Amino acid sequence: MAFWRFMDYITEDNRCPIIEWYGIQDDDVQAEFDLLVKDLSETDDWDEPKPTKRKYRVLTKRHVGLCELKFKVHGRKFRPLGILARENREFVFLGGCEKQGMNTIPPDAFDAAFRLKEPFEDGRGGIREHI
């Protein structure tokens, strides 16, 4: 049973940043990403059961309003980025990256996702259900 919906943001110029990012990932990364989305969609309360390590983090400071999902593949850290709308039980993907210390691949992925937040909130572009 799905408690949460995952949505893809489509930019005004008809780009889908999460699909662009996903499409260049290895099969193992894609599979782990798909499993994370499935698991979170079927989890009523993302903060339970404790002490399980959370699979997400709400961002602060420069990127306030964004949320990162978290997963690892072969010791590498990946961060799908988006907006967590608890009131609607939705997560809207704005992009993704691999995190290596303070750096990301692609570079500035958090800033790029943050730049998409305003057009999304202004109703520019669109969303579709993540498949």
What keywords describe this structure?
27% helix; alpha+beta; 131 residues; 3 helices; eight-stranded mixed β-sheet
Could you outline the blueprint of secondary structure elements for this entry?
Elements: E1 5-10, H1 17-23, H2 27-41, E2 56-58, E3 67-69, E4 71-73, E5 76-85, E6 90-100, E7 103-105, H3 109-121, E8 126-129
Parallel strand pairs: 1-6
Antiparallel strand pairs: 1-8, 2-3, 3-5, 4-5, 5-6, 6-7
Structure overview:
The chain has 131 residues and is of the alpha+beta class. It contains three helices and eight strands. It has helices at 17-23, 27-41, 109-121; strands spanning 5-10, 56-58, 67-69, 71-73, 76-85, 90-100, 103-105, 126-129. Strands 1, 2, 3, 4, 5, 6, 7 and 8 form an eight-stranded mixed β-sheet that branches. The radius of gyration is 14 Å and the shape is globular.
Question: Brief overview, please?
Answer:
With 131 residues, the chain is of the alpha+beta class.
Terminal CA distance reads 16 Å
Classify the beta-strand content into a percent band: 25-35%
* Helix and strand element order: EHHEEEEEEHE
Give the mean pLDDT: 94
Determine the fraction of residues in helical runs and give it as a percent range.
25-40%
Tell me, briefly, the overall form: globular
Could you name the ranges where pLDDT drops below 50 across 5 or more consecutive residues?
A: none
Q: Could you give the count of β-strands? A: 8
SS-based structural class? alpha+beta
User: How many helices?
Assistant: 3
Radius of gyration: 14 Å
Largest sheet: 8 strands, mixed
